[in-house]
C-alpha cells in the first residue's frame, strides 16, 4: 500500500500543535522523535556520502567508498547508479532511511577543505552524476539528502561567510546539479548550507528555498538544516526550512510550537512542514512498516558491494602522465621499492564523510601479492601527520577477541567508574565521540567509560604516546599511569569540548604486547559530549629519508605514494596552499633523480602542485579511494586493469593561475564570486592560462582515433555522431567530450563549455559510432533580464575531444 496525500492529511489532522512541532526538530544527532500515540516511528538519518556511518561515532564498520572526486573522475553515470544501489544496501544494514548526501557544490578553489566530497568543477558533469547517484539510492526506498544548498564552497568562516554571487553565476554554475536532482531524480530531501548567500543564511533564504526550490523546480520533499545551521524560528519557518538538526532543538520543536501559539508563525506554515516530513516518511516506508525504523545496526561485509566499489576506484583513477612505464611488467621486475607516507594504508579526507572500514589494506602488501617473483621493499621516506597521529588501529586488539582490532568498552552508570559495567561494546576507532547518552539507559554527564586494548608495537624504540579527551581521562600501560588528563586544559577538538593533547615518551619493544587502559569520565554533569583520542607515533628514524632514496636507487622500479590525509583535507578548515604536506616534494624529486623508472601515486582529494610530474615515469591520481583502493591500484599498476578516469577538476600549476585567486577567502564576512561563470576550466581556456593538467584529461593504456563528426539537426535537437576506434594493442576506455563555443555571444561567455560526454570501452582494434545529443539548453546562458535560459540564434562551434584542451575534431552548427 502506498501512502497518499489523503493519508498524510488525515495523519497530520490527528496531531496536536505540539506533536506537529515536535517533528520539526531532531531529538538527537541522528533521529527525529516518534509520535507514539499515532504510531509514527522515529526517522533515522546518517552521514554519507562516502559510505553509511550509522548512529555511532565509535567505529561501527561500514564499506568505505571512494570519495566524490573519484566518482567525478569516472565520468560514468551508469556505474554511479550501481554505486547508489550499494549505498542503499549499506543504509538498510544500519537502519538508515535518509542518507546525507551527495555533496554537489562546485569547488571554486582547490583549497576548499571539502573539495574531495564534490564531484566536479563543472555543473553538467556534476548534475549527470548527481542524478545517477540519487536515482540509484532512492529506487531502493532510501532517501538522499542532497547538499549543501547553496554555495558552500569553502570552509573558511563557513558558519557565517556570505557568498556574494550574482544571479547568472548562481544559475549557470552553482544550482544546476540541485535542479537536475530535483527535476530528474526526484530527490526526497535537501540540506541547506551553513553559509549565507547575499547576506542571508541559507536556512532562512526565501529566494533559494521558496522561490527557486519549491516554486520553480516543484520540490515537494523535506528541507533540513545542516547540523547546527539553523539561526532563527520565524524567519527560517517562513522561508521554508522544515527540520532543524540535530536535537535537542534550539529554534524549532517546542520553540516553533510557542511561535504558532503566539501567532508569530501561522499553523498553516507548520502544517506544510509536517506534510513534507510525513511525505518523506511515507516514501521511505516508515508509515507502512513502522517497525523498520527500529532495527539493530549490522556490519555487513558484502563481496558484491565491494566489487562495485573497486570498479569505481578503477574507473575513477586518473593516469595523468606516462612515458611507457605503466603498466608494469611484473615478470621483468626483479626488485621494487614502494615508498612514501601513504604507501601503507591509503588515506581519506576528514569530517562527516568518514566511515570506519571493514579492513585497512596496505598498498605495499597488495602490490607484493601481484608480483610474487619480485623483491619488494617498503620505506616511509617522510611523515605528514599534523601533530601526533592517532594510534594505528592495526596494532590494537581487544582483550576479549584477539582476532579483531580496536578497543573493548565498558560503560558505568556513575561518574567515577565504580562497580561493575552495565554494558560493553566494541570500538573500531581510536578517536571516539559520544554526544548525548553514550549508551541506552545511561545519562549524559552521569556516566563513565573504560577502554581496554592490547597494543603490540611493530617497531622497537622510543614511541611517543598521547591522550586528549572531552571530559577527564587517564591512560595506563600495563597498569602504570602514563598520562594523567584528569584536570584537562581546554583545547580545540571534540566540537570545542576537548582538551589539549598530552604526550609522553615510552620505550617499547616490537612484538611485545602491552595492556592499554583509558578511563574517561565527564568534566561536568551538564556536559553532553564525551570523547577520547589515543595517539601514538612510531620512533623516528634519523635516516628514513636517505633510506627511501637508497631503496629507489637500488630497485628496478620505484613506486612513491604521496598525498594528504584528514589532518590536511577535512570539513572544518581549508588547505593553506597547493603543496604536498611535509617533505614530500623533496622526496619525490629525490627518488626520481635516483631512479627515473618511478611511478608516483597521488593519494589526495583535491589538486596538488606537481612540478616534478613530467620527469616521473608515470603519475596516477588515486584520490581517496576507500577500502578497495589498495587492491584496485595494485591491479592498475601491473596492468590487470586500466585506469580509465578523467580529471573532473583542473590541476593548476600555481594558485596565482586559479580563477578565484583575487577573491578567496574574502574579507569582512563576505566572499565575492568575482570570477562569475568563469569557474575552473572555463577560466583557463578563456584567459589562455595553461594548467598543469586540464579538466577532462586522462591517459589510457591504449590509444584512440576520432573520426570526422557528422551533424543531424532538427526538432530542437542537434545530434553529433563520429566513429571512435581503439588503435592500440589492448582493451581500453575513452571519454569523448563535446564542448560548445558561441561565435558571437551577446553576453560574456567562456571560450567553451561542456555540453555532452560519453564513456566508451573498446577492445583492441574495435570501432564504434557514438552519438552525442544536444538540446537548446546546451547552447543557453541565463538571461538575467528575462530570468530564464536563452539560446541566441547564430553560429556555434562544437569541439569534440579527449579533454577541455585536447580537441580532436570540430564542426559548426547554426541555431535559427
Tell me roughly what share of residues is in helical segments. 10-25%
Amount of beta strand: 25-35%
How many helix segments?
17
Q: Give a quick account of the main beta sheet: strands, pairing sense, barrel closure.
A: 7 strands, antiparallel
Please provide a written account of the structure.
The chain is of the alpha/beta class. The protein is built from 17 helices and 36 strands. Strands 12, 13, 14, 16, 18, 19 and 21 form a 7-stranded antiparallel β-sheet that branches. It has a 6-stranded mixed β-sheet with strand order 9-25-24-23-10-11, covered by helices on one side. It has a 5-stranded parallel β-sheet with strand order 1-2-3-5-8. Strand 23, helix 15 and strand 24 (598-603) form a beta-alpha-beta unit. The longest helix is centred in the N-terminal third of the chain and has 17 residues, at 77-93. The radius of gyration is 27 Å and the shape is globular. The model has no long low-confidence stretch (mean pLDDT 96).
Brief synopsis:
Helices cover 21% and strands 25% of the residues. It is built from 17 helices and 36 strands. Helix 13 links the parallel strand 10 (335-339) and strand 11.
Chain-wise SSE layout:
Layout: H1 5-13, H2 17-22, E1 45-47, H3 68-74, H4 77-93, E2 98-100, H5 123-138, E3 143-149, E4 162-164, H6 167-174, H7 176-183, E5 189-192, E6 196-197, E7 200-201, H8 206-216, E8 222-224, H9 234-239, H10 254-262, H11 267-283, H12 303-316, E9 318-322, E10 335-339, H13 363-370, E11 375-379, E12 396-397, E13 407-412, E14 423-427, E15 431-435, E16 448-455, E17 461-470, E18 472-477, E19 480-485, E20 502-508, E21 514-521, E22 529-537, H14 544-554, E23 557-563, H15 584-594, E24 598-603, E25 618-621, H16 629-637, E26 670-672, H17 681-687, E27 704-706, E28 710-714, E29 717-726, E30 732-742, E31 753-762, E32 767-774, E33 781-783, E34 788-790, E35 794-801, E36 807-815
Parallel strand pairs: 1-2, 2-3, 3-5, 4-6, 4-26, 5-8, 10-11, 10-23, 23-24, 24-25
Antiparallel strand pairs: 6-7, 9-25, 12-16, 13-14, 13-16, 15-22, 16-21, 17-20, 17-22, 18-19, 18-21, 27-29, 28-29, 29-32, 30-31, 30-35, 33-34, 35-36
Helix pairs in contact: 1-11, 3-12, 4-5, 4-12, 5-7, 12-16, 13-16, 14-15
Amino acid at each position: 500500500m502506498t501512502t497518499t496525500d489523503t493519508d498524510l492529511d488525515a495523519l497530520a489532522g490527528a496531531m496536536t500543535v505540539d506533536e506537529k512541532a515536535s517533528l520539526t526538530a531532531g531529538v538527537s544527532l541522528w533521529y527525529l522523535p516518534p509520535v507514539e500515540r499515532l504510531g509514527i516511528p522515529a526517522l533515522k538519518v546518517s552521514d554519507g556520502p562516502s559510505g553509511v556511518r550509522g548512529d555511532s561515532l565509535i567505529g561501527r564498520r561500514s564499506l568505505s567508498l571512494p570519495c566524490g572526486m573519484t566518482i567525478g573522475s569516472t565520468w560514468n553515470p551508469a556505474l554511479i547508479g550501481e554505486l547508489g544501489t550499494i549505498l542503499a544496501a549499506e543504509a538498510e544494514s544500519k537502519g538508515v532511511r535518509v542518507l546525507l548526501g551527495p555533496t554537489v557544490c562546485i569547488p571554486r578553489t582547490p583549497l576548499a577543505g571539502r573539495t574531495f566530497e564534490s564531484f566536479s568543477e563543472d555543473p553538467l558533469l556534476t548534475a549527470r552524476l548527481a542524478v545517477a547517484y540519487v536515482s540509484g539510492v532512492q529506487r531502493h526506498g532510501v532517501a538522499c539528502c542532497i547538499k549543501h544548498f547553496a554555495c558552500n564552497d569553502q570552509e573558511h568562516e563557513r558558519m557565517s561567510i556570505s557568498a556574494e554571487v550574482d544571479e547568472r553565476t548562481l544559475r549557470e554554475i552553482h544550482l544546476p546539479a540541485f535542479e537536475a536532482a530535483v527535476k530528474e531524480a526526484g530527490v526526497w530531501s535537501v540540506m541547506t548550507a551553513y553559509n549565507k548567500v547575499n547576506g542571508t543564511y541559507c536556512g532562512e533564504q526565501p529566494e533559494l528555498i521558496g522561490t527557486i526550490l519549491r516554486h520553480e523546480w516543484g520540490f515537494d520533499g523535506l528541507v533540513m538544516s545542516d547540523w547546527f545551521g539553523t539561526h532563527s524560528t520565524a524567519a527560517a519557518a517562513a522561508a521554508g526550512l522544515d527540520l532543524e538538526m540535530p536535537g535537542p532543538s534550539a529554534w524549532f520543536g517546542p520553540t516553533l510550537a510557542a511561535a504558532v501559539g503566539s501567532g508569530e508563525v501561522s499553523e498553516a506554515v507548520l502544517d506544510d512542514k509536517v506534510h513534507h516530513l510525513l511525505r518523506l516518511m511515507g516514501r521511505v516506508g516508515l508509515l507502512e512498516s513502522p517497525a523498520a525504523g527500529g532495527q539493530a545496526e549490522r556490519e555487513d561485509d558484502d563481496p558484491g558491494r565491494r566489487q562495485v566499489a573497486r570498479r569505481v576506484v578503477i574507473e575513477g583513477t586518473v593516469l595523468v602522465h606516462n612515458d611507457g612505464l605503466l603498466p608494469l611488467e611484473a615478470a621483468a621486475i626483479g626488485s621494487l621499492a614502494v615508498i612514501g607516507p601513504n604507501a601503507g594504508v591509503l588515506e581519506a579526507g576528514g569530517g562527516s564523510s568518514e566511515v570506519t572500514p571493514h579492513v585497512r589494506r596496505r598498498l605495499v602488501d597488495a602490490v607484493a601479492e601481484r608480483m610474487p617473483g619480485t623483491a619488494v621493499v617498503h620505506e616511509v621516506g617522510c611523515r605528514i601527520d599534523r601533530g601526533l597521529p592517532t594510534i594505528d588501529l592495526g596494532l590494537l586488539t581487544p582483550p576479549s577477541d584477539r582476532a579483531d582490532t580496536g578497543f573493548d568498552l565498558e560503560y558505568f552508570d556513575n561518574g567515577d567508574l565504580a562497580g561493575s559495567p552495565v554494558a560493553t561494546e566494541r570500538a573500531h576507532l581510536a578517536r571516539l565521540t559520544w554526544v548525548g547518552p553514550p549508551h541506552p539507559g545511561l545519562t549524559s554527564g552521569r556516566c563513565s567509560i573504560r577502554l581496554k586494548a592490547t597494543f603490540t608495537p611493530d617497531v622497537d624504540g622510543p614511541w611517543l604516546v598521547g591522550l586528549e579527551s572531552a571530559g577527564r581521562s587517564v591512560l595506563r600501560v600495563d597498569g602504570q599511569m602514563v598520562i594523567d588528563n584528569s584536570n584537562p586544559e581546554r583545547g580545540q577538538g571534540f566540537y570545542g569540548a576537548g582538551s589539549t593533547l598530552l604526550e609522553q615518551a615510552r620505550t617499547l619493544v616490537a612484538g611485545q604486547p602491552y595492556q592499554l587502559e583509558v578511563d574517561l569520565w565527564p568534566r561536568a554533569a551538564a556536559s553532553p559530549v564525551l570523547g577520547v583520542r589515543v595517539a601514538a607515533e612510531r620512533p623516528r628514524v634519523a635516516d628514513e629519508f636517505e633510506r627511501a632514496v637508497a631503496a629507489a636507487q637500488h630497485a628496478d622500479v620505484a613506486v612513491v605514494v604521496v598525498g594528504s590525509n584528514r589532518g590536511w583535507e577535512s570539513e572544518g578548515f581549508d588547505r593553506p596552499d597547493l603543496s604536498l604536506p611535509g617533505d614530500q616534494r623533496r622526496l619525490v624529486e629525490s627518488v626520481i633523480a635516483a631512479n627515473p623508472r618511478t611511478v608516483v601515486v597521488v593519494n589526495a582529494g583535491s589538486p596538488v602542485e606537481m612540478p616534478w610530474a613530467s620527469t616521473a615515469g608515470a603519475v596516477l591520481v588515486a584520490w581517496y579511494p576507500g577500502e578497495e583502493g589498495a587492491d584496485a591500484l595494485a591491479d592498475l599498476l601491473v596492468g590487470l586493469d586500466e585506469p580509465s578516469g578523467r580529471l573532473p577538476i583542473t590541476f593548476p600549476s600555481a594558485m596565482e593561475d586559479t580563477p578565484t585567486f583575487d577573491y578567496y577567502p574574502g574579507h569582512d564576512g563576505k566572499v565575492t564570486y568575482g570570477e562569475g561563470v568563469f569557474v575552473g576550466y572555463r577560466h583557463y581556456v578563456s584567459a589562455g592560462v595553461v594548467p598543469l593538467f586540464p579538466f577532462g584529461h586522462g591517459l589510457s593504456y591504449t590509444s584512440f582515433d576520432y573520426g570526422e563528426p557528422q551533424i543531424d539537426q532538427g526538432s530542437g535537437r542537434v545530434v553529433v555522431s563520429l566513429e571512435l576506434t581503439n588503435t592500440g594493442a589492448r582493451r581500453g576506455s575513452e571519454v569523448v567530450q563535446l564542448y560548445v563555443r558561441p561565435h558571437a555571444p551577446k553576453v560574456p561567455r567562456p571560450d567553451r563549455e561542456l555540453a555532452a560526454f560519453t564513456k566508451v570501452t573498446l577492445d583492441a582494434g574495435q570501432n564504434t559510432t557514438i552519438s552525442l545529443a544536444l538540446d537548446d539548453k546546451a547552447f543557453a546562458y541565463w538571461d538575467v533580464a528575462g530570468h530564464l535560459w536563452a539560446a541566441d540564434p547564430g553560429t556555434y562551434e562544437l569541439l569534440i575531444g579527449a579533454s577541455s584542451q585536447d580537441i580532436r575534431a570540430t564542426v559548426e552548427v547554426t541555431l535559427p
